[in-house]
Amino acid sequence: MSGLPAVRRSAVALIAAVAALVLLLVGVWGPPSSAQSRQTLRLRADSEGALKFNKTRLRARPGRITIVMTNPSTSGKPHAVGIEGRRLDRHGNVAQPGGVSRVRATVRRGTYEFYCPVGNHEAGGMKGTLVVR
Ligand SMILES: [Cu+2]
User: Fold this and answer.
1) How far is the CA of 9 from the centre of ligand 1 (A)?
2) CA 95, 93, 107 angle in degrees (round to 5)?
3) pTM of the entire structure?
4) Residue 82: beta bridge partners?
């Protein structure tokens, strides 16, 4: 018995190799699990121009987040959104009226502050708490 002819054996080996490669690629670039996916938290500046967001509290799970803040202000005030806490301090682009500011971060369990980094807006009350758990 010589087993499978050499050509047939190499074809089987090739198919096995392709199947293994496909499984590897699906594992690497396949749909992310919910733990890995980025959470989007939405926020809105006050449309009348008051120094406040529409929320004072946001919640998220540990992981990657994007805070998306729309600025519907009819008063002409620019706004932005920032996040601070647990050795993190960063803010997104300044959004003119009608625009959107985004800030991305990776957060751990704990409490952060979100705020508007424009002018004195944070001191004026444009801030809130992000709870991660
Ligand atoms: Cu502001």
Assistant:
1) 69
2) 120
3) 0.73
4) 91, 115
Give the model confidence (pLDDT) of 26-65 as tens digits.
655 555 555 568 999 999 999 988 999 999 999 999 999 9
Amino acid at 105: A
Q: How far is the CA of 85 from the centre of ligand 1 (A)?
A: 19
Query: How many whole angstroms from 112 Cα to the centroid of ligand 1?
Result: 18
Sign of CA dihedral 47, 39, 94, 125: positive
Distance of CA 122 to the CA centre of its chain: 22
Q: What is the distance in A from the centroid of ligand 1 to the CA of 25?
A: 44
Distance of CA 105 to the CA centre of its chain: 7
State mean pLDDT over 6-20. 70
Q: What is the mean pLDDT of residues 91-105?
A: 97
C-beta of residue 82 within 8 angstroms of C-beta of residue 114: yes
Residues 6+ apart with CB under 8 A from 103: 66, 67, 80, 81, 82, 83, 90, 91, 92
Q: List all residues 6 or more positions away from 102 whose beta carbon is below 8 Å from its beta carbon.
A: 66, 67, 68, 69, 81, 92, 93
In the reported structure, the alpha carbon of residue 38 is separated from the centroid of ligand 1 by a whole-number distance in angstroms of 25
